[in-house]
Amino acid sequence: MKSTAISLPPESPEKQLAGFIAKLEPSVAKLFRALRTAMRKRLPTALELVYDNYNFLVIGYCSTDRASDCIVSLAANAKGVNLNFYYGAALPDPHGILQGSGSQNRFLRLGSAEALERPEVEALIAAAVADAETPLPAERKSHLIIKSISAKQRPRSLSTT
Fold it and tell me: In total, how many domains does the chain have?
């Protein structure tokens, strides 16, 4: 007897992302979704590059599909969500709110989507956009690209840590 296998279509990137977010602590997942919505409004022509890696679930907001053209990113783990500035070390930070001491990346810990509306955070995002080596296009429909999924990951929920 011949068996027939049914081939299912691959999951859409949005469905894959929803699955990644579902692994997060519920309060972190809610915050991550709210921040993503706010970032999509703030950077409507940016491509969203998703990395579900060992330490974090990351959405990079980029001018191209290359990680090196990432302007900012949201990074979530079991403890919360950060707004990362890929070239944050070069940004003006008169309020001293950026954290990190690496040669390139800086970040902010975010407790709410409203934190993105603070004038000093808005100024950092605007400076990052202005300083981007490859500018965001004036017009383009943004879309989501799943770039990588790590087989091994740290727990994303405090109940599993």
Answer: 1
Q: What is the pTM of this model?
A: 0.87
In a domain, 8, yes or no: no
Which residue segment(s) compose the domain that 143 sits in? 13-160
Burial 76-93 (b: 16+ CB within 10 A, else e): bbbebbbbbbbbbeebee
CA distance 98 to 3: 59
125 in a domain, yes or no? yes
Sequential pLDDT tens for the chain (161 residues): 565 666 656 789 999 999 999 999 999 999 999 999 999 999 999 999 999 988 899 999 999 999 999 999 999 998 899 999 999 999 999 999 999 998 999 999 999 999 999 999 999 999 999 999 999 999 988 889 988 877 766 656 665 44
